[in-house]
Design the sequence.
């Protein structure tokens, strides 16, 4: 091998080593195209360096994605372990009665010496309230001794099971009635409904008029209002719970109060009730029954409207003043709500309250209920 041939091969080897140092795949080199160790570079080499940069970016993104998936997996495991441990502390305080093969929770307190014809207050929660039992608890001491009352938690709420049945309004009212029968809560009833629960109360009165003594709505809309109620996608909230994010945030001071800003930061709940509310949020909130209920809101509202007649029972609408910001057109709509749906209606504005009046001024709710019953002291 002559000296020129050796020089060409040495130059080719040095080019291969340089490409390796730059992170480029080795390219076959024709010694004849290389003039020596210091010879001119082949065309196209800068493009290879650019390709290497993109590969590094995509590789970094891949590792970032793997890290995110790892964190999410850890969060789901954290939530699953937490749910398993929480179940032991999440014990229904009332009766779990059989309704269509599933358990429905009914919490009740009977007034001592209650007369046979004396109404029972049935508390109906609004949409998405994870624990109606805890949510209505500020009312218990105010009603106790003056009226019998019961909280019936719909399927998917509180301590009740989740069912496969679609959440249409007739099925919901049938389940409510069956739960009351099974729990031996006898009519007549004063249906006291928060928010979207007004659809359930009105439909119940339409179907079982002889069993209803009156209706109190707590900052509720009319069926006509819910006919155009905006749909809500709760998937992000559901993922936040199932991935352990909400569970972790509960350890941050002030998070529970922030999460429940429209419920007065749970200030009127006892520590035991706050804990039950937390457990319900982590264990049952935004399940399939709850999301299906909001998907059917327009159909359910239309069903109630289709059978509209003025109910021959007293009806009271409690309206939150939103801390002095309630709009006059909303008040007019509330008055029209009562007048068009009941032969005996009245509207009352509750001062210094947000949407969940029972969390701000439970006395106003208790007074309205007892006044309708004719037993206010």
Sequence:
């Amino acid at each position: 091998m002559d000296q020129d041939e050796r020089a060409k091969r040495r130059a080719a080897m040095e080019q291969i080593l340089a490409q390796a140092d730059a992170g480029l795949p080795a390219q076959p080199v024709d010694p004849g195209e290389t003039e020596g160790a210091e010879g001119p570079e082949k065309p196209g080499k800068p493009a290879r360096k650019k390709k290497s940069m993109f590969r590094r970016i995509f590789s970094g993104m891949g590792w970032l994605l793997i890290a995110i998936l790892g964190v999410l997996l850890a969060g789901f495991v954290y939530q699953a372990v937490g749910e398993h441990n929480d179940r032991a502390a999440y014990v229904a305080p009332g009766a779990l009665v059989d309704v269509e093969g599933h358990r429905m929770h009914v919490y009740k307190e009977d007034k001592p010496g209650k007369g046979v014809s004396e109404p029972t207050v049935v508390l109906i929660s609004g949409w998405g309230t994870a624990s109606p039992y805890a949510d209505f608890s500020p009312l218990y001491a105010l009603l106790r001794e003056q009226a019998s009352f019961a909280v019936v938690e719909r399927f998917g709420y509180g301590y009740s099971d989740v069912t496969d049945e679609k959440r249409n309004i007739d099925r919901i009212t049938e389940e409510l009635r069956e739960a009351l029968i099974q729990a031996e809560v006898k009519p007549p009833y004063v249906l006291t409904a928060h928010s979207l629960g007004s659809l359930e109360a009105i439909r119940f009165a339409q179907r079982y008029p002889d069993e209803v003594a009156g209706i109190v709505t707590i900052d509720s809309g009319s069926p006509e209002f819910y006919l155009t109620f905006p749909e809500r996608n709760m998937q992000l909230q559901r993922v936040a719970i199932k991935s352990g994010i909400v569970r972790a945030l509960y350890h941050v001071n002030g998070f529970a109060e922030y999460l429940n800003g429209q419920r007065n930061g749970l200030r009127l709940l006892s520590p035991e009730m706050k804990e039950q509310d937390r457990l319900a949020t982590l264990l049952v909130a935004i399940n399939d029954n709850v999301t299906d209920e909001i998907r059917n809101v327009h159909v359910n509202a239309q069903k109630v409207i289709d059978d509209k007649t003025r109910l021959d029972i007293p009806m009271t609408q409690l309206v939150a003043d939103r801390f002095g910001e309630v709009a006059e057109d909303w008040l007019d709509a509330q008055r029209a709500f009562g007048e068009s749906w009941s032969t005996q209606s009245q509207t009352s504005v509750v001062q210094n309250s947000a949407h969940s009046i029972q969390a701000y001024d439970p006395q106003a709710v208790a007074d309205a209920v007892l006044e309708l019953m004719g037993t206010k002291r």
About this structure: The chain has two domains: 1-38, 90-373. The beta strands are 95-99, 102-109, 120-124, 148-152, 189-194, 212-218, 311-320, 342-350. The longest strand covers residues 311-320.
